[in-house]
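About this split. The held-out portion is used to measure sequence recovery: a designer receives only the C-alpha cells and must propose an amino acid at every position. Recovery is the fraction of positions where the proposal matches the reference. Here is one held-out target exactly as it appears in the evaluation file.
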C-alpha cells in the first residue's frame, strides 16, 4: 500500500496555502516554547476568532447555545475550546486532543550555587531525553516566578537578539577517553545537567562572589530574590526561532514540535471552521511527557469537569447526560509519530513506518511490545476515519512506532478511551523526536490541518 509524496499533487494555490499555514505555525512555535506560553497564545488567537471565556460566562450566569464558541483555560497550562453544533450534544462531540508540554530541563527549587568562581543553576530534566544532546548548545530560560506576595513575574532570557544565552558544558575531547567508554545513557548524567549562568565576582565579596553578583543582577533586572526560586517554574529550552530546513525549504526545524505540530494544526482547524453540525472540541493538555499526571494532565478530571460546566450552561446537565456525551464522542488523539529515518533503518519495519511528506499518520495502536499500555482502535472507527480523509482528499498513511520489540511510546488516547469513546492516534511524522531540535515536513503540517478540519466537519 504505497502512498504518494504529497508534494506531487499540489497546485500553485495549494503551495501558497501550505506556505501560509507553515509560516503561522512557525510563529506559534516561537511564541509558545512552554505549555503556559502555548495556552496564552491559544487564548489570544481564540479571542481574535470570536471565542468567549467560559469561566466568565459561568460567573455571569450566561447561557451557551448552538453556534457559540467558548474556551476554558485551566491553571494556565491546559485549555479546552468548544464550538457548539446544531445537533444535540448528547450525540457526542468531535474531539481533537493534543499535548503542549515538551521534553526540556527544569530548574530546581534551590538551584543557584557557585563552584570555582562559576555560577550554576541546578536542574532536573523533564520527559524522555538523550541527555548528551543538551550540552554545548545555546539555551534560554522561560517561565514564571511567583513572589511571596503573589506577584507573578514572566521570565524569558535568551530569545532576543541582544539577550545572553545560558549553556551546559561538556568534557573536552582531549580528556574524554573514559567518558566515551560509557553507555549513551551515562555519557552525561542527570545531575550534571547544570546551567552555567555567570563568572564575574561581586567586588569586595570574598565568599560566593559570583553567585552574589548573579543575585544582584536578578534583583535589578527581574525583581526577585533567591528565596523566590522556591515558588518558580523555570524551564530551560533551546534558544532561537523555528527555522525552515533543507535547501528546498521543505521542512521545519524547531524545538517542541512533539506535540505542538499537532496542537497548532488542531487549533488552526478549529478556529477556521465557521459552522459545525456536531459540537467540535479542541483539547490541549499538559504533562503528557511524564505520564499525563497532575492537575493539568489528562488523567485529572479537569476535562470532565469542564464538559459538565458546559452542559450546565446549556441547561441540560445531569450525570447521565455527561456520561452519554463523553461515551458518544469521537476523538483524534493528535500526537506525532516517528518518521522513517534511513540512517537508522534497522529499528523500523518499512511496510508499517511513517514517511515524510506522505500525509498525516494514523496509528491504530501505540504502547510497547504486545501493545502494552496502548489504545487499540476499533476497525469500524478506522474505516470511518478513512472515509472522512478520502472524502476531503487528505493525504494519509498508517504506521507503528518502530519494530515490535524495539521500543514504543504512548499518548493520551488510552485515557480518553476510558470514557468509552472511539479514539485513534493521528498526527505528524517527526524526525529527531525528543531532541532539542525536531524536524517535520511542511507538507505534513498542511495535510494535518486539512485532516483535522475534515474530522470536525
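Reference sequence for scoring:
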Amino acid at each position: 500500500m504505497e502512498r504518494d509524496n504529497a508534494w506531487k499533487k499540489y497546485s500553485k494555490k495549494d503551495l501558497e496555502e501550505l506556505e501560509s499555514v507553515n509560516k503561522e505555525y512557525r510563529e506559534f512555535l516561537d511564541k509558545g516554547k512552554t505549555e503556559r506560553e502555548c495556552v496564552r497564545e491559544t487564548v489570544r488567537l481564540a479571542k481574535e476568532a470570536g471565542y468567549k471565556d467560559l469561566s466568565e460566562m459561568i460567573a455571569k450566569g450566561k447561557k451557551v447555545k448552538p453556534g457559540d464558541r467558548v474556551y476554558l483555560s485551566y491553571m494556565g497550562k491546559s485549555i479546552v475550546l468548544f464550538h457548539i453544533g446544531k445537533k444535540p450534544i448528547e450525540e457526542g462531540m468531535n474531539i481533537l486532543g493534543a499535548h503542549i508540554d515538551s521534553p526540556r530541563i527544569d530548574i530546581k527549587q534551590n538551584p543557584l550555587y557557585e563552584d570555582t568562581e562559576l555560577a550554576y543553576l541546578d536542574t532536573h530534566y523533564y520527559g524522555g531525553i538523550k541527555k548528551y544532546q543538551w550540552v554545548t548548545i545555546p539555551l534560554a530560560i522561560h517561565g514564571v516566578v511567583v513572589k511571596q506576595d503573589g506577584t507573578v513575574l514572566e521570565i524569558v532570557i535568551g530569545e532576543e537578539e541582544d539577550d545572553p544565552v545560558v549553556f551546559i558544558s561538556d568534557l573536552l575531547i582531549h580528556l574524554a577517553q573514559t567518558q566515551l567508554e560509557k553507555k549513551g545513557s551515562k555519557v552525561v548524567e542527570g545531575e550534571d545537567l547544570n546551567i552555567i549562568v555567570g563568572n564575574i565576582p561581586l567586588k569586595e565579596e570574598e565568599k560566593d562572589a559570583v553567585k552574589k553578583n548573579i543575585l544582584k543582577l536578578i534583583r535589578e533586572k527581574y525583581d526577585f530574590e533567591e528565596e523566590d526560586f522556591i515558588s518558580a517554574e523555570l524551564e530551560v529550552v533551546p534558544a532561537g526561532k523555528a527555522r525552515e530546513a533543507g535547501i528546498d525549504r521543505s521542512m521545519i526545524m524547531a524545538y517542541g514540535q512533539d506535540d505542538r505540530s499537532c496542537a497548532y494544526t488542531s487549533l488552526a482547524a478549529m478556529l477556521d471552521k465557521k459552522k459545525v453540525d456536531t459540537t467540535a472540541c479542541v483539547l490541549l493538555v499538559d504533562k503528557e511527557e511524564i505520564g499525563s499526571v497532575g492537575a493539568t494532565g489528562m488523567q485529572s478530571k479537569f476535562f470532565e469537569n469542564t464538559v459538565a460546566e458546559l452542559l450546565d450552561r446549556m441547561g441540560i446537565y445531569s450525570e447521565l447526560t455527561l456520561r452519554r456525551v463523553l461515551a458518544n464522542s469521537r476523538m483524534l488523539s493528535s500526537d506525532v509519530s516517528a518518521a522513517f529515518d534511513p540512517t537508522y533503518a534497522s529499528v523500523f519495519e518499512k511496510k508499517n513506518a511513517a514517511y515524510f511528506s506522505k500525509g498525516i499518520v494514523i496509528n491504530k495502536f501505540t504502547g510497547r511490545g504486545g501493545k502494552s499500555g496502548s489504545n487499540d482502535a476499533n476497525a469500524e472507527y478506522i474505516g470511518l476515519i478513512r472515509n472522512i480523509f478520502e472524502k476531503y482528499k487528505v493525504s494519509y498513511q498508517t504506521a507503528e512506532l518502530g519494530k515490535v520489540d524495539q521500543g514504543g511510546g504512548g499518548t493520551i488516547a488510552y485515557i480518553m478511551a476510558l470514557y468509552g469513546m472511539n479514539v485513534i492516534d493521528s498526527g505528524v511524522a517527526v524526525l529527531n523526536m525528543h531532541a532539542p531540535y525536531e524536524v517535520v515536513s511542511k507538507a505534513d503540517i498542511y495535510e494535518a490541518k486539512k485532516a483535522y478540519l475534515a474530522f470536525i466537519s
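Annotator remark: The radius of gyration is 23 Å.
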